Amino acid sequence: MATRTVPSTTPRPADTVPPGLPGLDARHSHVLTDARGASWHYLDNGPELAAGGHEPVGTVLAVHGNPTWSYLWRRLVADALDAAGAGAPAWRVVAVDQLEMGLSQRTGEHRPLARRVADLGAFTDALGLAGPVVTLGHDWGGVVSLGWAVDHPDLLAGVALLNTAVHQPDDAPVPAPLRLALAGPVHRLGTRTTRAFLETTLSLARPRLAADVAAAYRLPYLSADERDGIEGFVADIPVDGAHPSAPELDRIAAGVARLTVPAVLLWGPHDPIFSDRYLDDLVRRLPHAHVHRFADAGHLIAEDVDWTPALFRFLPEVLSAEGSATPGTDAFTGPRGPSTSGIRPSVPEVPDPSASSITSPSASPDDSATPFVPLWAALDARADDDAPAVLDMTTSTTADGADGRPFTASWRALARQVRRIAAGLHEIGVRRGDRVSLLVEPGPTLTALVYACLRIGAVVVVADAGLGVRGLTRAQRGAWPRFVVAQRKGLAAARALGWPGVRISAEPLAPSVRRALGVTHELVDVARAGEGRPLPPEPGPQDEAAVLFTSGSTGPAKGVVYRHAELSALRDALAAHFDVRPETGLVTGFAPFALLGPALGTRSVTPVMDVSSPATLTARAVADAVRASDARIVFLSPAAILNVVATADVLDAGDREALARVQTFLSTGAPISAELLGSAAELMPSATPHTPYGMTECLLVTDITLDGIREAAGAPDAGVCVGRPVGGGEVLVSALDDDGAATGAPSGAPGVLGEVLVRAGHLKERYDRLWLTDVEAERDTPPGRWHRTGDVGHLDDRGRLWIEGRLAHVLRTADGPLAPVGTEQHVERVPEVRRAAVVGVGPAGVHQAVAVVETVDDGTGRARRPGLAPDELAADVRAASPVPLAAVLVVPRMPTDVRHNSKIDRTRLASWADRVLTGGRVGHP
């Protein structure tokens, strides 16, 4: 079989696979001849299911692309058989080799797209395939499978896709690898004469394919004649509207947009051929589809990641939708409406959440009686008010900038500018649901842009500059905005790094700079275009409003989708809990809250600082901002507070007088010690210090004051007390088992260590294009919309929540799970220790606790060398620790995440500690 050299002009029948191909059971290999006489090779687990007494509930019809073959689906064929053997619903998997490809017949005939779709129909007719059928495709097999789906609505029950495309945008070139493969003499040389195209495709695997697996992919294509189908497949790529296969591609693309069956898109973002541009197009055609981007996967996603569990999570939804169908319905007109939630596994029995959870005294988060008030309502209400709305501390009002007074936008001016920009954006093509990435520093311009986008129903994409170039690139490509509004630095990054979106400059640029940066519009011209223009209808509470990216401190940053309803609920929760009134005023040194001033109906000011580095904020800058705005509330992050306290000695009497007028002071973004909060409170002696607990997924969960922290200090509880739920929120805890997994039934019982679950009216809608992450975040939760936070802690008998670390950082010891924060707090009481982290080294299940400490400045100005701690320090740390420590290590400075500058990177520390203790290079963590 390995030496077949039949000329392409001589038909060759299909063949079966030889034994010994890695991961492929030869019993699954079959040959079939259709009514036209064409012979097909395909994989099929149906006979094995029947032999085991399993009646299939449906069939997955899997179609490979170019230049792979049915071997691509070997795991799915086997995994479906194993799942049925374990008692799960039985799914038959049929994975076909397209004609001229794999082990199917070589006819020597060219097969354009329309013919390939018809071929697949002839194959399924010969097979006698009955519904329900879920189509599954990859690469150009995705298009063929969708063609079959469009043509067989009576059999179709669902659609699943790996990286593929059904449309080539007019304004974007065909991907470079395909352009090269199509180029003149290179086409035949690269696709047929040599194995270049095949080898290039195999090289895209992440990680590299094992040698025997790569050899299996090469098996059907050893000779040039056997690669005739590869050449023909490439030639059939519709590069423009004049291509013979373009009408068929357009027909399929239009048909896909009418499908209503359940759908799932599983994507590898590191694909140089089918990039996120094509995912975005598919999402627009299948808005109800579940989408999951596997962060490290590429073009050969089926080889790169363990993807079959995702499909098995999806298939029950197909059965559910199929079961609800009524006679006469089909894939286009059936009752299967868009699905907006993940597949929820069986929910354990838990007490009634209203009785078992710890709940804030406000209204229930599901209280639908509360009327929806859009985020811009207060701005509209004050549209004729000339009082200050937003102050920019970085822009002087004088020609020479000598007086340092801030630029101020009144409510009237801000409301007018919002309307002008909103109408102007609509004029240049921004529509409801379009994503608009805003890479603009906080200030009046960003504020106007946010409310303008929200007003016309555009979805604001916000990714913090603190994510760094790599994180920002991941965020931009993941969200795939249609428009990008940026200042020069952001535009340069977008150009250099290939970020998507029509580029709009937030500042005037010289014509040559505009051309160099690929700028299509300037914001000033957009606003002029909107002058006097009517606005489109307002979006509703269920429309998407924003995609906010997490900090990336616990893994790759994730996009968090909020609807208008959730953003308005957040505004209401903040206003009620902190008593925000029009006369209050806000100083916002914490980016997530910097844009809420207009929504709250009160003036806001961002102090002078580098917004990507909160630790740059000084005490003088806070005092200047308070004085300029006469604000009564100050929002800061822990990293900012640390530097504010450190620079307080430069404050003069006027600065201290201004700070003394502050009534409420909030530290938000990460836990903070009572000592540091108290030091900041000394600068604002009239203020009540608060430290709310929240996350990007739910920006306000609980709250506690400094007095509350001091009161809790006398309790025996481990961890950081973050107070009680606010804003209608609820909290439950899912207990950890001996392996450190949160498997316990969620409850409000005190003293139970476990994962924290939250529920609130302002909880996120979902993660963006991370369906499996959503499913996990909702795993085994009570009825309603709950979120597993990934934080570990417990509730006390007074309803207070104590945070003891992250689930990923729990040590799995021989004595059971150990959360790190409680031990760290004891270690940090050693006078020489500034900060501590407790990490586990060794195999999971027998983790050994290791303390890593950062010491206080000893006055010499010399930082300690990383490595084993001195004997005396190690002894003091061990004496303070409530658990045995295998080792004590010292570092000159703790590694932290780039955005908060305050969350210790324990995963990185654990890896470093393991290296040091096993004799590896010490270096820096």
What does this structure look like?
There is one protein chain. By secondary structure, the protein is an alpha/beta fold. Among the domains are: 26-170 and 243-323, 3-Layer(aba) Sandwich (Rossmann fold); 414-539, 3-Layer(aba) Sandwich (Rossmann fold), CATH 3.40.50.980; 810-925, GMP Synthetase, Chain A, domain 3 (2-Layer Sandwich), CATH 3.30.300. It is 33% helix and 20% strand. The chain is built from 32 helices and 37 strands. The strands form six sheets. Strands 1-2-4-3-5-6-7-8 form an eight-stranded mixed β-sheet, with helices on both faces. The protein has an eight-stranded antiparallel β-sheet with strand order 9-27-28-30-31-26-25-24. It is globular and about 95 Å long.
Relative helix content: 25-40%
* Tally of separate helices: 32
Low-confidence stretches are: 1-9, 333-356, 362-367, 396-403
Largest sheet: 8 strands, mixed
CATH C-level of the domain at 26-170 and 243-323: Alpha Beta
Strand arrangement across the biggest beta sheet = 1-2-4-3-5-6-7-8
Level-2 CATH architecture of the domain at 26-170 and 243-323: 3-Layer(aba) Sandwich
What gross morphology would you assign? globular
